[in-house]
Design a protein that fits this description.
Chain lengths: 1063, 196
Amino acid sequence: MNKNSGKDETSTFVPPRHWLGPEELEASYWADPQVAEKRSQEFYEKPVELIDAIDKTDTQGLARREFLTIMGASMAMATLSCARRPVHKIIPHVVRPEEVVPGVSSYYASTCKECSVGCGILTKNREGRPIKLEGNSEHPANRGALCAQGQASLLNLYDPDRLQAPYSKSKGQLSGTEISWETADAQIAQKLKASGRVRVLTGTVNSPSTQRLINEFLGGFKDGKHVVYDPLSLGEISDAQEASYGTNVTPKYYFDKAEFVVSFGADFLGNWLSPVEHSRDWGQGRRLDSKNPANAALRFSKLVVFESIFSVTGANADERYPVRPGDEYRLAMALAYELIVSKKLSRFASDSAVIAALQGYKPEVIAAEIGIEGGAEKIRALAEQLWRSRGKGLVVGGGISTRNSSAHALQVVVNLLNSALENEGVTVAGAGVFAQPGSTYAGLAALIEEMRAGRVDALIVHRTNPAFTTPRTATGLEEAMKKVSLVVSVADHADETSRFADYVLADHHYLENWGDGSAWHGVYSLQQPAIAPLYSTRAFEDTLIAWAKGAQLKVSSRLSGAADWHAYLMDCWNEIHQSEHIPSGFQQFWETCLRDGVYTAKANSSTKASARAFRSASVSALTKFAPAAENEMRLALYESIALGDGTSANNPWLQEFPDPISSITWDNYLNIGVAAAKRLGLAENDVVEIQSADVALQLPVHIQPGMHPASASVAIGYGRRSVGKVGNLAGVDVFPLVKAQGNELVYAGLPMALTKTGKFYKLAATQYHTASENRPIINDISLAQFIKNPGAVNETEPELKLKEIPTIFPRHDYKGYRWGMSIDLTQCFGCGACVIACQAENNIPVVGREQVRNSRQMHWIRIDRYFSGTPEKPEVVFQPMLCQHCENAPCETVCPVLATVHDDEGLNVQVYNRCVGTRYCQNNCPYKVRRFNFFDHWKSYEGSMNLAWNPDVTVRSRGIMEKCTFCVQRIRDAKDQAKDAGTLVEESSLKTACQQTCPTDAIVFGDINNPATKVSHRNDEQRTFRALEVLNTRPAVSYMTKVRNVERAETQEANEAKEGAHS
Amino acid sequence: MLTSRSSQLKYGIIFGALVVVLAIVGLMAVFPTATNQGYAPEQPIPFSHRLHAGQYKMACLYCHSNAERSMHATVPSLNICMNCHSIVKGDSPYIQKMKKAFAEGKPIEWVRIHELPDFVYFPHKRHVAKGVACQTCHGPVQEMDRVYQYAPLTMGWCMECHRGETTPRNVLQNVYPQMKNPQGPVAPVNCNTCHY
């Protein structure tokens, strides 16, 4: 296989089949003795600097060892002298609330407000504080799953940098004088009373009741208007829907019904519209059954992606084509041309308006211009495949990285394609659409114009931060805000926009507030406070109600009569209760909804989507766009999986979350393809200056395989200036690069010049931290191979599949339960929600950028990303790697103090109180999943952050080893409940944190001694293998081979070629 | 074999270390304060278990009701005290202190007596469910005016019971109902039974 890579220089160099970075494909990399040494070492980095520091310290002539001995002895004496522990107090409730039992968790249904989707969540509460968020399985959008950002939003609640009280100040200043809510209300209400032209500027509001409240509040003014600005909202989709179908909506997409999906830059698995819902659906369409492999051909969808960045969706594409930013539109047009004009297919073949609009987009012309792999032939083949799967296909497009001047046009073509392919009404529907249509920059642009002209008396900003998320100087926002006599910012941090406010009012975190949400029409979810407000904060909605009363506005009786936001919300739900004709009383309806967290309207379940008529005029209205000159570098901005638009940049879990594709933490960087880097003479970590229009920024370079040679990309949301200790100046703010072009903001296809600065910046990447000696650890096969032989894993990577190995050690005897896990690599798409879920559940600390560089990150589960193929056109496999709970665990045999031992249910146990930190176990672990506490990382949690700890898991201190426990506290809890009921643990009642949050159910956990469990079923499948089985560790975690829906004629030849190279 | 001065020194150090360790172990045996056994701090209100649990024979679980529901037995909230003391013995200065705290909504801060290290998870619930009497670990509380720590609460002491060596007979019978003279281990002794 590939173990011989480059070691024997006389043999032909065979690059590894799966590689971490493009350098591994070069023989010279393996020939480098430094690399060889580093890779053969057990640890990526040694704990040298501390010892060096001690060595360098002048300890008055004592050698280091003597110094340590003496230190040890004095420590021992110090402990002996005070055996009495400190006095601790027990402080019980004065009156214990009925539902609170100290030590027992309670769950409350609520709605996640981290992004604009509004997934249903359950908050796990202990002693009155939320300690973990989980998806609500009743909610039809996320169905129990939650994304990484949603999981991490818990920590935002306990952020010590949150605004803790309202304050008034002068514009331009960041700090001011704290005032009471009464004073603030009185002063603001008085000013509002004198104001006629009032604007409320918010982010996307996905709460119907809040929306109604804002509207009713503004109705009390002579000229009141609500403006929405959300950089992540895909307003171009709703605009194009209006142009094509006449309704301004964000349609609903059914990825589970689609057999063939083509995406033009839409990262629907990562962060496009409703990623958790989409990935859950998409996973449904890619289930495999080894017992009936032939069925797979019918049930296994195919995904083709054209994109300018490397997104999570692109990484999961069966076919992925890197394009230059902005070329997505012309490709889509070429596809439509081929389908409608060349092949004369679909009902648009006779539509002269459409045909006229498509002129000039001949696949030959476009392919030559764009330089797509496979050329016009590929576009033709794609058109044919799309036509074959018409009515069962889906074309999607859009996202920040496609947002250039053709963003709207791209959506119109996407609509045209879906209508032509009869997907409209089946996989994409205008019924049951998102509750809020998307918003564009146009609204804010108009507002800025109004403010500049002095036509706004009062501006109220809530949950949007345009002073950060727009190119500020270009839009003139800051100057415009100075011209408004009253600017109130209702925010959770003293953010960039608050700087230009007269009053900054501290807002609740969503877990402290009442509210509701609507993922799509007819689905209502409730949001309830899971904790009393930590600080002197108040809900935005209560603030509006107070002002409506204080300023004696002429508003609706619902608003003027509402005692508070809670009462107003109940009033709104009373309307749902009435319109739905629910026989039971309102109180009962309300309590049921509060318990379930979600209510689905009756009408919604019966609505059948039907195809809408496409208006050909929308295509005719499109203008033609000139192509960029060849090889001219174009820049695309994108939103990262971790940070989005940077709202939660002060969340250390998200900052330390390794990007699924680049595995880089804590920073943003310029992604450049391998060929481009070679051409420009750039290496990883070089700092370059990019010049786009009149803005110049310095950014470190990351060399990303699979980028178009003339494309570069960088993530937005980093480099906040005013959010808190964690997020301030982490990374570089690239919003100034965004081009303000009249009513739109251009994020993609920006021309740029690039100069090397000669400086270096070491990105905190986790890429090589776990690189081993390049043993095969993962496998992927094509669907054809799977259908032919579901156990193809035995043949393609034989070392992964060694059945029985004779052993002299006695086997463990598991009499009761034996816990095991199975991870389906076909389903895992690398979103990383499990990483954050595990972090929240298991009290995993954050170590900071510097320690990540030293390979000391603490995540118990990590997502290893492997590339295969060429650096220009790589394929990706994601492998979640966690403690394998080996039966023959190499770690157990080397621990000198028996701190890591095997229990009788198959768990590999780490006993913190026994561990003395020799790190032998980490040394001996072939999976590199053990994490060592080099420092008391828990001390970095300040004040209120300590409330986020899970009391069921020990907080580890310095000098001890830790690793995945299979969520043993959850096993305990499930067993406890089963014992109460006198039964065995039911599979459904026990889920590990990673499994619980997985949107595609890639992770399954349970008792492998019981043949009826899901995990046992999976282990029986032929696709199952175990990582490094060749070492005879006998892991309790099994993996299922990744299957790609790709015709791979070359596989056979490649194998033969490989064998030829070996002989 | 060649014995150099330095290796003699080495053996000397090892021997010396052994002596120190033994001395520490010996000291801990002589002075059980290291385990806190017998610790009987003064409480803000001199609540007498002898009176309540002994003389009036109130069930332990009346006040410590969470012991059968939760990991923690918990000290009762003041409203439990007020169940009786809103009527009973209102003239006592301590009851008045308690009533004042209740009226003001200020909890009483009791001094914790039984405390396991942070890395130990001891579920009261499972032990109560198996029929372990409170007194097995907490001693004759019904005779205590001021509660003290009765048992050493060391890991070895826990293990003796889990292995079935010091287990109360009724618990053994619960675990081995078919045996006439039940004996054997009664609970798991995996590390992660208590440490995780």
